[in-house]
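=== RUN LOG ===
request id: a7f3
mode: sequence -> structure
chains: 1
length: 476
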Amino acid sequence: MSDARPLKLKRSETIDWPTVLRVMSDARSRGEDHLKAGRWLAERLFSEDRVKLGFRDSLEGFSAYWKGEKEREDALSESLGERDQVIEMRNSVGLWERRGGQSQASLGEAWILEKGEWVRALTLPETLSKVKVGNPCRFGKRKNPIYGREIPVGVYDSEDEKEKVILIKSFRKKLMEAVKEKPAKIRKSFSRKVWRRGGLEKVLRDFFPNLSQGGEFFEFVDRGKVLRARLRYEGARVLGWRDSRGRILLNPPMRKVTRLYESPFRDQGKGGRRNLNDLTPAEVWVALKLIDEEGVPTARGEVFSLFSGGEGLAVAVALEDEAYPLDELVYDLANLRSGHRFKSVSVSEARLAAVCREAFGFQDCEGYLKGGLPVEYGEGAVEVLRNRKDLLASEDSERDFSSGDLERLSVEWKSLLALIAYGPKLKNDRWMALQKEAHRVIGPNEVNRELPILPAMPGRQRGRFESHRIGYFPKA
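=== RESULT ===
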């Protein structure tokens, strides 16, 4: 108690909007006056001043506001062609990012999507299906295969001696096409049908890439009387898309999204968006489309009322975007409570931030929005969750977070998913689907009745704490 001091309690200036809207929504569902229910709750909040919601002064202007919003949305939809259409691709860790131009790389370092997982392109025989020469062949063991092509070169003049090889017609024709720009003497030497087997590798090695669409000679093999060449394609050049992790992807899933950019430096002018901090709660709720012209909570307002702070706004507008996959949204929700710590590992802006900025612009609203995003929003949490083991194993002393921050992020994310999974049922198909997806991610609700095994208490914590502080004695 020597360090204790009196603490004066003071109510926060921020009103708990979700609770007020939830009370109004429940009153409406029971057939009661929702405005009266909201005022009743506001009058009972702990405050020295009277808490006003602003319905009495603003209700008449709600209809005009909603009419103006409808005209604004109609004008926006007419100019849809002028909005920025962005093509995104799903990268090698499952996140959507803006697609860049194609890059040229070797086929050996390229990746291909197979049954939902990214694998090395040459581990699948189908990768070389467009190579029109030869048949597939495998290098290495069955568990870790590398596929190439095997093409027939010629047949032995005598199966017993195998000293001379007669080139087959198709291979000889391609060989003549490869040397047609050479001097006449070289063309004549390559025009013969019969070749000695000894030293044939050295003679033909440099021609195989042109004859087989990039295949490099590895070895000759005998298949009965037929001499065949085995070719590897790790060095063949292909075009692919390089993602933010540096991997070349050959067939990434694509999607086209519309990004509405609203500059924070643009003068809104007369009739533009007002400063939300200067409005009454009721006026802000209308501006954020949480209530309709009669003051009834909208579908967005009902979802918002189930959360704390501005995170409900992000969830609500994400559910309104029908093209936003829910299996992607459940991971993006980790950004809502992550703050700034993980920004250094962020590779691209999550789609959740884009839908928030499209709905709210760059507006600030004390306690709920900052720059159009929830106050505690931060990028990079999704990447941290997917690469948690690697981050824990690394010893990067310059990063802005520790193992404790990773644990807190995981706890906060699963807490948010549990809030969704076990939250109230709404007449909203997307909300119900999100609840099922959250249930799937967090798993069954198993109660652990055993106490956790704690580490042994060190000796310094077993003794009584002795304060060596010099006390202050006031003068008599």
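=== NOTES ===
Confidence is low (pLDDT under 50) at residues 78-82, 263-272.
The CA atoms of residues 310 and 374 lie 5 Å apart.
=== END ===
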